Amino acid sequence: MNSWTHHLVIAPILIPLVASAVLLFVDERRRTTKAMISLAATVILAFVAFLLFRIESGPNDFEGVYLLGNWAAPFGIVLVLDGLSALMLLLTALLAVPALVFSMARWHAVGAHFHSMFQLLLMGVNGAFLTGDLFNLFVFFEVMLAASYGLLLHGSGPLRVKAGMHYIAVNLVAALLFLIGVSLIYGTAGTLNMADLAARIPDIEPDRRMLMEAGAGILGIVFLIKAGMWPLCFWLPPAYSAASAPVAGIFAIMSKLGIYAILRLTMLLFGEGPSAGFGNIVLLYGGMATIIFGTIGVLASQALGRLAGFSVLVSSGTLLMVLGINDGAISSGGLLYLVSSTLSISAFFMLIELVERGQDAGANVLAVTMEAYGDAEEDEPEEADGVAMPGTMAILGVCFAACAILLSGLPPLSGFVAKFAMLSAMMGTGAIGVPPTAAIWTLITLVILSGVAALISMTRAGIRTFWSSIEGTVPRVLVIEIVPVMFLLLLTLGLTVQAGPAMQYMDSTIRTLRKPSVYIDAVSKAVRIPDYKASGAGSETGSH
Amino acid sequence: MELILSIAIGVMTSCGIWLILRPRTYQVIVGLSLLSYAVNLFIFGVGGVKANVPPILGDGLPVTALADPVPQALVLTAIVIGFATTALFLVVLLASRGLTGNDHVDGRNEPR
User: According to the UniProt entry, where is the signal peptide (chain B) (predicted)?
Assistant: First the structure.
């Protein structure tokens, strides 16, 4: 193994950390310098993530286990890079670059230390994707959350402070639950290393296993709060819609972090053995309830920000449900859906800001209210000549239509491919001989209905915004604001064109995940770098 | 000892939860602090309750006579992170008080 590529595993954590530290020393008035440092760090991060992704998906057998501090696996903290974490790292970096570019138009100037917090958020997210240790996962979660509190409040204002306060309170309680869960697991299993824990689960005696499962359940609640499962999600739409556009754009990855943690831990700890299938029922029915709640929310939303917030819930619900079924082919479709929906929701959050700029804040609410009560339909004398569609509106309209297509899962963009992969896998379970069960039919119905709801809602909003806007002002949009949105949408287009290889990658990732022994072996067989003194002197007398 | 510890954790947790569910921000933050104390004690308890035993390995010391060092390390980290986030919450709470003029969690006084 090449030592240079080996050390690359820790780079996604170190690059943002160093960048955020350096940014603290740059004076707040030198915004361009700060923005350039931040952008350079993020682009390097994207490059590293891409490199790791290439290495991981390449043919050579890459051992992505990195022993921090050169301590052997169950005692020290390990970082583990596998197919799933490489994919999530790449996704994070691909969201971060456009969000950062978008923020440089305006948003990074409305408060202090935007770039430092942004980099710390990236560090927390990347660390959480890489870590192979439960307590370290908690630490990275807190790093990410602390940065996200600051970012959510960035720009200030009563609305943000109110939403932020609820968000912080909920997440502080979640952090306490995280600690309870982790300590219960430690108390019963005697280890916090995920691979070691997975290896030990079969040996835990039944009465202790019950406690261990309780700990895992409490831990699951924390991740479900982050992912936004139905009874735990009331903080999410207000918080995400109150955040400034680039912040909401990068927040799109945070709910997926909850999904990632659930996916990783259920596959690893409860994939096989005596506790197999633990929590699947909760995920299945919780996911269903989340989709229903999210769909109702999408239909009821009058402001575009809330519509996007509820779309996050629909996407989370679909993924939770897929995890609940726990079937290989459906899961790999779900993984593609995760990537596609994260990209499209992030693009949508940023697009909303552009579309709503120049409009009165209450215009949407007013429009829908008028639609409902119909009392403002005064017949204004229509101008005879048609209004020329300004170029800005045309670009925004096309992007909006692309978001609508993605969120509702219509062809030709990747939202359709992902939903089709999931649905055909669900139907496919019947083709073998077993007809799809009632649960599966419910799921198929829910997935399709949620898409229809998204389509109805987006169409209504689009008509109100682009065809019969009350005010009719053309928003002033900078190039560096629309390009990030288009970049994200082009990525989904690329995902559609490359759907074959993408599906293959998802398939192999899920197949590896479903064999926990691969992960366990990789971690337990990771070799330490020989002691410098011992290898230099050529003797074995070095004391440890 | 175990009984006192568990009663203490239970009382603090229940007080904390009750306070978190109150509509005033000050009560919420006191509730969060109480809950975090309870959780810290809980982490301690998970490592086994032992008195007068150091978590330090020494020559000739039997391993059974040692306290488990891992929960103590976890508690230390948890305290640091808990303090930091609670302090941040306090700042947000003050900002909310300044912006809305009252200390209700929704930023408005209840209708009388």
Answer: none
Instruction: Report the alpha-carbon distance of residue A51 to residue A33 in Å, rounded.
Output: 27
CATH classification for the domain delimited by B1-49+67-100, as one of 1.25.10, 1.20.120, 3.90.320, 1.10.287: 1.10.287
pLDDT tens readout for residues A262-299: 999 888 888 777 777 788 888 888 999 999 999 999 99
Which residues does B contribute to its contact with A (CB < 8 Å)? 20, 25, 28, 32, 35-36, 39, 42-43, 46-47, 70-71, 74, 77-78, 81-82, 84-86, 88-89, 92-93, 95-96, 99-100, 105-107
Instruction: Provide the ipTM.
Output: 0.92
**A185, containing H or E segment:** helix A158-189
| Residue A345 per-residue DSSP state | H
Domain span at residue A285 reads 281-370+391-497
Residue A411 CB neighbour total at 10 angstroms: 12
Instruction: Kindly report, residue by residue over A420-448, the tens digit of the pLDDT.
Output: 888 888 887 544 555 667 778 888 888 88
Q: pLDDT band at A2, cuts 50/70/90?
A: low
Burial class (CB in 10 A: 0-12, 13-18, 19+), A290: buried
* Structure confidence at residue A543 (pLDDT): 40
Q: How far apart are CA A166 and CA A232, in angstroms?
A: 12
Does the residue A333 lie in any domain? yes
**Residue A33 maps to a domain:** no
- Residue A131, beta-bridge partner list: A79
Tokens 């379970």 locate to: A429
Q: Among candidates A229, A222, A257, which has minimal Cα distance to A91?
A: A257
Q: How far is CA A110 from its chain centroid?
A: 25
pLDDT of A346-363, one tens digit each?
A: 999 999 888 887 565 555
pLDDT score of A97 more than 80: yes
Q: For residue A332, is it within any domain? A: yes
CA atoms of A9 and A12, how far apart (whole Å) = 7
Query: Per the domain annotation, does A39 fall within a domain?
Result: no
The pLDDT of residue A364 is above 60: no
Mutation test of the interface with chain A: which of B85, B91, B96, choosing the one with the most A Cβ atoms within 10 A?
B85
Number of compact structural domains in chain A: 1
Nearest CA in chain B to A138: B78
**Helix extents (H) in A236-362:** 236-242, 245-269, 280-300, 304-325, 328-356
Residues 82-141 of A with CB under 8 A from B: 135, 139
| Nearest in space to A279 (alpha carbons), one of A378, A181, A199 | A181
Using alpha carbons, select from A231, A237, A388 the residue that is nearest to residue A300.
A237
Give which of A79, A45, A223 is closest to A145, Cα–Cα: A223
Question: pLDDT exceeding 70 applies to what percent of chain A?
Answer: 87
Residue-level pLDDT at A532: 65
Rounded (10°) angle between helices B69-100 and B25-46: 180
Q: What is the predicted pLDDT for the residue at A366?
A: 55
